[in-house]
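Design job #97: recover the sequence.
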């Protein structure tokens, strides 16, 4: 069993590094992370993975293919993951500008983080514009529950917790539990 686990780990690391390199853009730090599911790093921008971070969880439910998608779509887009972060399965980060995540963050399954609206609200411009584009910043030691959606321009302060299923449209202060749709602070952790 240990041999099978080692082989699987090496195969995933090989498969993920090939996938990340073959889709354009630059991926830094891939050799310093733990992979349990493939990472698809596509787009033209830069993806930086912090050392000792882990991507995917074998024991968590794998809906769909389980892949983690880190998409820095434009040449100037950047996704930066801090050190010792842990991602569950089926997570998507999509940046047209930047998504920066601090150290020691926990990311639940099926989380989506986007720094752009991707379409204008006006019916006349809906097919031609990209809508609002604003950086997303997630502080150190943040826990983001399963199926959370974080939208453009949001900053989540250090040590905060975002409850499962929340839609985060506005910034959350440090040391705060937030939940709901739209997410709102529920209580302080200090």
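Job complete. Output follows.
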């Amino acid at each position: 069993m240990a041999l099978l686990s080692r082989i699987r780990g090496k195969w995933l690391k090989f498969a993920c590094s090939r996938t990340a390199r073959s889709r354009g853009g630059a991926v830094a730090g891939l050799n310093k992370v733990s992979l349990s599911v493939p990472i698809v790093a596509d787009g033209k921008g830069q993806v930086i993975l912090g050392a000792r971070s882990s991507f995917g969880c074998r024991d968590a439910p794998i809906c769909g293919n389980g892949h983690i998608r880190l998409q820095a779509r434009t040449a100037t887009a950047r996704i930066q993951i801090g050190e010792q972060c842990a991602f569950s399965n089926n997570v998507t980060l999509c940046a047209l500008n930047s998504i920066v995540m601090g150290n020691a963050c926990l990311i639940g399954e099926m989380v989506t983080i986007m720094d752009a609206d991707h379409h204008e609200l006006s019916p006349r411009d809906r097919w031609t514009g990209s809508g609002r584009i604003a950086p997303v910043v997630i502080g150190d030691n943040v826990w983001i529950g399963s199926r959370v959606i974080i939208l453009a321009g949001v900053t989540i302060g250090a040590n905060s917790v975002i409850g499962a299923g929340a839609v985060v449209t506005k910034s959350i202060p440090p040391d705060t539990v937030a939940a709901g749709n739209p997410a709102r602070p529920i209580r302080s952790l200090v």
